[in-house]
Amino acid sequence: MPVVNPEKLVALQHAAEGIRNICILAHVDHGKTSLTDALIATNGIISPKLAGKIRYLDSRPDEQLRGITMESSAISLYFSLLRRTAADAEPEQKEFLINLIDSPGHIDFSSEVSTASRLCDGVIVLVDAVEGVCSQTVTVLRQTWIEKLKPLLVINKLDRLITELKMSPTEAYTHLNKLLEQVNAVMGSFFQGERMEDDLKWREKVEERINAAAVKASERAGGSNPTVFENGDSIDTTNTPAEYEEKDDEDIYFAPEKNNVIFSSAIDGWAFTVKQFAGLYERKLGIKRSVLEKVLWGDFYLDPKTKRVLGSKHLKGRHLKPMFVQLVLDNIWAVYEATTGGDKGKGDPTMVEKIIKSLSLNIPPHILRSRDPHALLTAIFAAWLPLSTAVLVSVIEYLPSPAIAQAARMSDLIDNSPGADFVAPEVRDAMTNFKVSKDAPVVAYVSKMVAIPQSELPENKRRGGGALTAEEARELARKKRAEIAKAQAVANVENADINGLTDALNGTTIGIPANQSTPPEPESKEDPEHLIGFARLYSGTLSVGDSIYVLPPKFTPAKPHAHPEPQKVTITALYLLMGRGLEPLTHVPAGVVFGVGGLAGHVLKSGTLCSQLSGSVNLAGLNMGSRPIVRVALEPVNPSDLSKMIAGLKMLEQSDPCAEYEVLQSGEHVILTAGELHLERCLKDLRERFAKCEIQQGEPIVPYRESIVAAAEMNPPRDKDLPRGTVVGVTTSKQVSVRLRVRPLPAAVTEFLGKNAGAIKRLYSERGAEEVKRVDGTDTPTRQISEQDGMEEAEAVETGHILSLTEFKEQLKQAFLEAKSEKDIWKGVIEQITAFGPRRIGPNVLVDATRSSICGKALQELASPTAESASSASTNTALTPSTFTDKIAYAFQLAMAQGPLCAEPVQGIAVFLEDVTVSAPEEENSASHNRLGRLTSEVIKTVRDSIRQGFLDWSPRMLLAMYSCEIQASTDVLGRVYAVLTRRGGTILSETLSDTISSASTTGSQTFTISALLPVAESFGFSDEIRKRSSGSASPQLRFAGFQMLDEDPFWVPFTEDELEDLGEKGDRENVAKRYMDSVRQRKGMLVQGKMLVRDAEKQKTLKR
């Protein structure tokens, strides 16, 4: 096929109606890259024979080695169609530009899926015909739903139904029907969830309006005769519909008759739609094409005598095949039988000739004579049902152009962005109405930064296919002469008798004798990495040299000048993305996916480019598919390479959407990744591309949490005179004593606080702004508060609706009421909460239970007099309990950040501050504030230690970070999978029998989908072990699922008679919680109790006697 020139692709960028921005999403190994290869082959970039084998967009060596995609990459393709404007008109050629993004399917790289989907207008979702709907299939369909992208379903690997599972056409039709139902069930669940949410919002809105109208009416009546509105009469609800408006869900489902389902085999290079076969059979059957499109799929049958289409009711007992089986699948099965069927798998030549003749295909003679049956199979399908035609025609006809897509999507996208009410009308109008003029506001979204070696940039690469300029030819000749002279000099030193250039060059290739000195090797030139932004332009036109604002993900248009204030950046280069290569551009119109240079150091991972600062929109509040959970400490093998490693880590953090880099307080350099495979890829990039030095990694640092429970068998309280968890702490100077009590929070409260950290953060930021306003008398927030506000709104996009203070208190009250057995303890506690922790937003509370309420209230309305009285009390000259309230709160934060078990964060505890007593001598009262500095440290240390003692008075527990694990395995290997899960401490949640037969099974047994929970600490090497034990037929998908309590006391020792009898004094049963606790303490350099270096040692000098 002819190669398409980049100039033609650049010219097509200006015809917006002919552009399609699509990405291919699917579960791992469902055939995304093979399908992409077939589409790339249409542009002559690779040979059609190599499609599915070369994996063109997998440009990394480790991607080729593992056979999976790890990075999303884009390519621009050209496609032309002959179309008639009218039935009797001449066909006209129409040209299209398809910007295609191939994305990974592995769960470790789901953040790449999130970044790819925001750039596109339509999606091709692939589903394996054998494996069906898998975990990542649901994930990508959800991403499609959230981003409001139009999906196109491709059921791939239909050849496996024929060659592996040996299904008949009728069985395959039934199987495909069930598969389509599974996909539609997933889409229906998304619609149902959204519908229920809308219904709830509508009910709340109606209720609010009725209540507001009732209050107004009662005020008018003067309160003497309040009116009760039973039916809501005389209430203004003009903006609220009287009944909930049902939305039609017909458009969200996949149906072959709607032209949004493609059946394909990417490896064999064929695909078809129902519309295609309707065109083929239109003349033969004498049925209109529009009618055939509706009846080719479903329970419709063709009467062989009358050639009429019958429904299932009119069969009258006759056993006819469905039309899809008779007219479509039977023919495809016949081609496979003719080419690769038969006893020896060599097919039937006479049947092949018959098929070629009946289909009027032109197959080259050398392929007909070929001994390779697969070559003949692919040649017949390439001439009859080419994959690229079916897919690209469906993309052009079904998926929208940028102008149509933005009109449908942009309003919701802008409304869900931070500070949406402050977006300028001209920016909103330009994005929604797709304005491409140079005067229109420029808005672009940078989804990620891609690292490109300097040698790969277009300005440093030789132009393909063109002649060298005179200057380039002279430079090349100069280099060649220098190389030849150097080689000749080396040869003359080795052998004085050898003269001539040819022999000299031969001598250098043979090698240098052992007794000769080795000539110095030329130093390899460094090839530095450059960061290119992977972007989509929504409005306006962007040119090289333009100055544009870069908005970070925390930016909000409500406070455009808040710290850090967005900076203006000059665009240094624009690129057309062509997979492994880049083509330079001078300007880019709206609706195009492109690469942009000049953003290095200004965009960390993602950001928004906007031509104006006031009224701009922030599109970068994107919810990543997976958060990094695996932390590993790194250090260079050679200490002098530390600066290289740090620079490499910073570059890696910018170029990877999910990787994060941080420096711990201990000085360790830590990288956070999404999983084991992601970690392996990051380390490879770091060693070979970014740092270019040897780096060694430590053991993975897995997060834990600490908590307490009221267990049935606990040790008696440490102080028998005080209730459990109560501690009276006295400072070393004996001048301040603090009495507090530690209790476990109800599970419902802990869960609620963990989910609503954003509401707590907003509460603190609003309170800080109010304090500044009260002190300074201005509305200008401080730098810190502004930054918190921006972060807060970015989190609102990720987590959804953030509760107001009233809603937060009401729902927190309901959570406390769920603990029915402890109602008296938690009664009225909400109004006494003075702080949350750790980091002021965690799931722990500090409760002020003192008689005089010395601490401020966290959950109070702004400008409350309680806070002012508390602050004014602290300004008194004498030392009072109120003087130390901020020190106690700080000590609480410290104790929550580092628990007593292994210095990990604490969750699920309440600390009741019961009494603070200050006993300073009267003669020292005048100098009391001079001693405040010393007392501050004493109070902080005493309160922190007291909280830890109260914590240990209960039964402590470790909370483990957990992965949700999904494994598809046949019954042959089910036992081995369970053995691996059990040995690693996994918990089986469910086991579902799939409708499909496992292709990896030797006995044709069915597939089970196993859902389990696995501790992150035990997950390293888990995937490899599962694959080895199951001979590659089972492969797990791991996703972080939060923290789960390990119901075992790390300090447990046998003390009852039965336990002592069964386990002995040392406790022969392994304490798993203690093992985890000790491993963390040892890593952090803390004291490990009971650690024995040697047991039952003997003198070594006596061993030989």
From TrEMBL:
The keyword Acetylation does not apply. It comes from the Eukaryota. CDD domains: aeEF2_snRNP_like_IV, eEF2_snRNP_like_C, EF2, EF2_II, EF2_snRNP_III. SMART domains: EFG_C. Pfam families: EFG_C, EFG_III, EFL1, GTP_EFTU. Residues 17-227 form the Tr-type G domain. InterPro entries: EFG_II, EFG_III/V, EFG_V-like, EFL1, P-loop_NTPase, Ribosomal_Su5_D2-typ_SF, Ribsml_uS5_D2-typ_fold_subgr, Small_GTP-bd. This is Elongation factor-like 1.
